[in-house]
Amino acid sequence: GSPNRPTRPRLVMRRLSKRERVRDAVRSMDVFPKVEPQHNLEERSSSGAIVTVITALVIALLVWTEVKEYLQIHIKYDYTVSADLHQEMNLTLDLTVAMKCDHLGVDYIDVSGTSVDASKWMTMEAAHFDLSPNQVDWMEEWKEVKAREGAHGLDSLNRFLHGSRRGAMPAPAPEINKIPDSCRIVGKMPVARVASNFHITAGKSVYHSRGHSHLGGAVPLQSRNFSHRIDRFSFSEEEIGTMSLDGDLQVAESNNQRYQYFLKVVPSTTQRLGEPQIFKSNQYSVTEQHDTLEDTTNAIPGLFFKYDVESIGVHVSEERRTFLALVVRLCSIVGGIFAFSGILSSCINSLQAKPPVTL
Q1: Count of CB atoms within 10 A of residue 141's CB?
Q2: Peptide bond into 133 cis (omega under 30)
Q3: Taking 60 as the threshold, does the pLDDT of residue 15 lie above it?
Q4: Which of 73, 112, 123, 205 is 20 to 30 A away from residue 101, measured at CA?
Q5: Which residues contact 261 (CB under 8 A, 6 or more apart)?
Q6: Nearest-angstrom CA–CA distance, 264 and 99
Q7: Could you give phi then psi for residue 3, rounded to 5 degrees?
């Protein structure tokens, strides 16, 4: 060719190595590129890519935690001063005593002196104290439910939200082929929200202006047996959740046995999520005292349930975080972590920057 003809530059294509391709792929993930102010160019780095990956993982983890928390239902406890002491509550009872119904009296008296024959609300029917195999299995299953749900402490109030619903004891199978030897007392009666005494004693009662008197002397000593089984003792409006005395079984050691139960009733109310109706669960704690009376004493054998109502009530409700609150928390989490990661990436880039060369 002519010597004056210009020479074209030769382009040399070089194939990138596998290591270089991986490095470029990692750098491309950098969302915090370093900006060169002199040339107005963005330079991506491996350290920025690592910060980006860690940021994405942290954001994903926190978003998943927030969404999971949003989907969960939380239990809320509110303490209030009970202002409805003049209102009544219902006592639900299902109890069997190893005595004939004709030998038993069921009475109620409160601190104001109001005395009531509880048999007006309670049904007294002949029954067997011994249980058939299927009834024993039913009692054992309910004991397991009681142990699982718990019947003591504040957290146990959760059982009134979605606890087990207690049904009636099944009929004996096979049938018990003997004369009934016990009395089943079952029913529901209104009681005052003040200190009261509900008791079951030997002999019927005579009511007068000062209360009532027990005719226990009309019942022979050998006919007295206060062995008893409590299938249900509740102040709740619903048959949901176990109570402290449910499933309690006591076998008397003598004919003059006295059983005293001291109850502290907490005016608790319960409200489920999405249900406007509030029902009164009225949790209680109990202390038991059993003793054998001497023949010379004037004390009366029997079953005595003495309860008092606390002035502080507990309202148990379910609540779930609103969707707006979820959105606000997610925005704050993503924005905060992204801003922090940008600052962290800038610091790393500053540390890795090469110092200018001075001539």
Answers
A1: 11
A2: no
A3: no
A4: 112
A5: 245, 286, 287, 288, 289, 303, 304, 305, 306
A6: 28
A7: -70, -20
Q: Which residues contact 226 (CB under 8 A, 6 or more apart)?
A: 97, 98, 99, 250, 252, 257, 258, 259, 301, 302, 303
List pLDDT tens digits, range 207-235. Answer: 777 778 888 778 888 889 999 999 889 89
Strand ranges of the sheet holding 104-110, from the earlier edge strand across to the other edge: 115-117, 104-110, 196-202, 302-309, 257-266, 283-292
Q: Give one DSSP letter per residue of 24-60, joined into a string.
A: HHHHTT-SSPEEETTTTEEE--HHHHHHHHHHHHHHH
For 298, residues 6+ apart whose C-beta sits below 8 A from its C-beta are none
Cα–Cα distance list, 330 to 51, 67, 336 (Å): 20, 9, 10
**CA dist., res. 259 & res. 56, Å (int):** 66
Look up residue 240 and give its DSSP letter.
Answer: B
Listed residue (125, 121, 109, 127) closest to 205, CA to CA: 109
Which residue is associated with the tokens 């030997």?
A: 202
Residue 246, exposed/middle/buried by CB under 10 A (0-12, 13-18, 19+)? buried
Summarize the confidence of residues 248-256 as an average pLDDT. Answer: 90
Q: Which residues of 151-173 are buried (b: 16+ CB within 10 A; e: fewer)?
A: beeeebbbbbbebbebeebeebe
Please tell me the predicted confidence (pLDDT) of residue 146.
74
pLDDT, the chain, mean: 79
pLDDT level of residue 337 (50, 70, 90 thresholds):
confident
Higher-scoring residue by pLDDT: 21, 304:
304
Q: What count of residues does the chain have?
A: 359
Q: Rounded to whole angstroms, how far apart are CA atoms 161 and 281? A: 9
CA distance 47 to 55: 12
User: Taking 90 as the threshold, does the pLDDT of residue 259 lie above it?
Assistant: yes
359 has a pLDDT exceeding 70: no
| Whole-number Å distance between alpha carbons of 352 and 219 | 100
To which residue do tokens 């087990």 refer? 164
Q: Given a cut of 60, is residue 328 above it in pLDDT?
A: yes
Write out the H or E segment, with its range, that includes residue 341. Answer: helix 323-352
Among 129, 335, 116, 336, CA closest to 251: 129
